[in-house]
What does this fold into?
Amino acid sequence: MALLEVKNLSISFGGLRAVDDFNISIEKEQLYGLIGPNGAGKTTIFNLLTGVYKPTEGSIELDGVSLVGKTASEICREGFARTFQNIRLFNRLTVLDNIKTALHNQVTYSLLDSMLHTPKYKQLEKEMDERAIDILKVFDLDKEANVISENLPYGKQRKLEIARALATSPKVLLLDEPAAGMNPTETLELMDTIRNIRDKFHIAILLIEHDMNLVLGICEELVVLDYGRVIAKGLPLDVVNDPTVITAYIGD
It folds into this structure.
């Protein structure tokens, strides 16, 4: 059984069918791309997968567990994490504290422990600091641990958002246009980072991206969406050379 199984996923907003009969199957440690023209419904699918929207129809199973009807926080605990098109860091917190916000879903000390700073609280906070630094090292951000996140360069803010998502210990990481706003050098570094994340943490990655160099450089399989429907699926080079896909992007 695949790690992620999505079958007949659909959602309507009034009379608009934003996603119609979407199906996808992602294996463990697979790098999978979701592409399509602007407005095709890609981010809507991410919102369905992570509980922001409730599907009108269809099923979502992660590692054999149905996610339909669960809250966003419950879905995160089951193993989904995501980033956003527009960076959503806690701008006034340090880089380290941004990571620690994602680790707190794994904390076992009580509110009383945190108020009294008990030995249990101090020990677990120390372990979280160490865990957060380990994650930052993967992204070469450990030296900026005490920097206020809004003071980071744009490319490093992007990396920090991915690192924060990774800190929730996901089974599947959803990246929504991770290369947006990056220059070519930063994009190449990001490609290496995404591969390293997959290999080091043994997770599957589903990404939305318009940068076709990145998509073709790292994705093992692609699915193409247009007007909420899948129009092509398969190996990256086969998909991007599909006449239907070319028409969807540039017209007849």
